[in-house]
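Quick one: structure for this chain?
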Amino acid sequence: MADAFPPPEEWDAAATGCRPTADHFRNEDFEPRLRRIFRSVVTDRIPTDERPPHSALLFGPESGPFASDREFASDFYNEIHHQGTSNAYTAQAVPMVAALASDERVPADERASLTTLLFRIAAETDLLSADAWPRQHPQADPAAAARARAAVRRALPELAARWDTASLDVRLALAALCAGFPEEPASLPLLERAEALAEDLHDSRPLSGFLRFARLTVTAPEEALHARVDELTASYWRTSPCELPARQRAVHLLDQMLAWLRWKVLPNLTE
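Got it. Here's what it folds into:
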């Protein structure tokens, strides 16, 4: 059985008629399942002439035949938002990411990752400012970041409308996303529902505390929000420059909290 699938370079060219081509690598027996799901969703929901360059990872041979779901997802996300920075095409990719984040064919944990990606795209300026203050991040492209944020804002109402059917990890990402858009009409109603959910999750202080802080990010006065950020970062979380606006500091903190909840808290929850 060990020799059932020899690596491509060992294939007998005389037996196969030619060297393996990209078409061999599209065989669904070897392709990551997540890539097939993503491609199906994009095919159904994004017209061919509206697909961003990043969609080549779904339709071309760029993703190797033996890659895992996780390896594929890492490549896919990194192409869109490389090391936390937008490029000239990130804004074009946002509708595709939003379509994937709202489609039930995509596994719930991956929809949470996609929604988190949208949050980080929208929050890029806040996050980079907090990390690089007082300098500008060397890879930052402010114009590209602004276009990408505007694209996320256009997608926000449709994403927020899925709160009722969303899993808990998707709801956490939606709360963070809405906290980054206090001016968006869909944000405050969703965050009010997030606070109601916090009451139901009172047995989990990290989850309920995160949801309450997300709402506070939108509703608290500047001075009160600064004070709450200082209180939280003094005891556990990575701090941010006090010279920044309070909402930017709060978004920077939400990003840390969301990452910790998704990787450390949610996997340990019992039904």
